[in-house]
Amino acid sequence: MVDSNSRQKIVVLGTGGTIAGRSALVNDNISYDAAQIDIESLTHDIQGLKSHLDGYKLDFEQVAQVDSKDMNFAIWEALARRVVQRLAEPDVRGIVVTHGTDTIEETAYFLRSVVCADKPVVLTCAMRPASALSPDGPQNLLDAFSVVMDANACGVVVVCAGVVHAAEHVQKIHPYRLDAFSSGDAGPLAWIEEGRVRWSLTQMPMYLTSRDALTLPDSGSWPQVEIVLNHVGATGKVVDSLLNAGIDGLVVACTGNGTVSDALMVSLQRAMSQGVKVVRSSRCVLGRVIPVAGALIPDSRGLSPVKARVALMLSLMD
Ligand code: SIN
Fold first, then answer.
1. How far is CA 182 from CA 163, 169, 199, 234, 299, in A?
2. pLDDT band at residue 208, thresholds of 50, 70 and 90?
3. What are the structural domains of the chain?
4. Who has the most CB within 10 Å: 135, 152, 199, 281?
């Protein structure tokens, strides 16, 4: 048992995103390049950082430098390994991962699924580039450090705009607002107020991982799982094309409580008869597909389509 007072280091892993973005004009928060500034430089100009850290040292690593629309399995594999390795160091208090907002929820859910984190792993981001007149990244970083330093924190969470979200529930719900994330019906885990973390629960939930990051197969051989959408006039053509191309699993972003058009259902059944695993999620932003005993296609147990895809992919690994 390690004395938590001996954990004096916070590891900061950079992966890119708008938080590391730069634009030509300080008042341009749209036409900028994400993933430009190295992770250590992001903290250089944060006023009050030293006193905020209260003696904790930061240890930086650039794991990747991408716009998160281009996040990929190879980076996920490398990131998960580094998270596991760094968490195992006795003097590490926890980890902050900087990430683009666009797919942070998928990376958070992936890490939560493959890392048994008894220390905090806090993903954070920004909606404005670092070069903006009033960037949100520095405050989000300070908030992420506050969560790592909090005595009750553990597990994989996402911090943005003063709110702590569970990896399981967080979703980007707005393309522009600084407060772009929601935990939906579940609500936030906590709020960060002037450096203090106010938990909505007395204790962080302990998550059960489904895979061990250190025994994942090579990322080049991860199962091929795609997402298809039910919508007005949905045919099964997309599914049929995917079957021809070769896939291992399909997540359906269903209408409402897990429904699909008759035509799409025919193709899904064909896919299942060929050994493709199919899972139903809902395209509704809130709530979940209500489980029904004996349903032909299993539901995603409350996971959004993109997270159901991660869960199905992990479950299909040898
Ligand atoms: C990205 O996801 O990398 C770009 C968008 C953002 O971080 O807000």
1. 9, 8, 16, 29, 22
2. low
3. 3-199 (3.40.50.1170), 223-315 (3.40.50.40)
4. 281
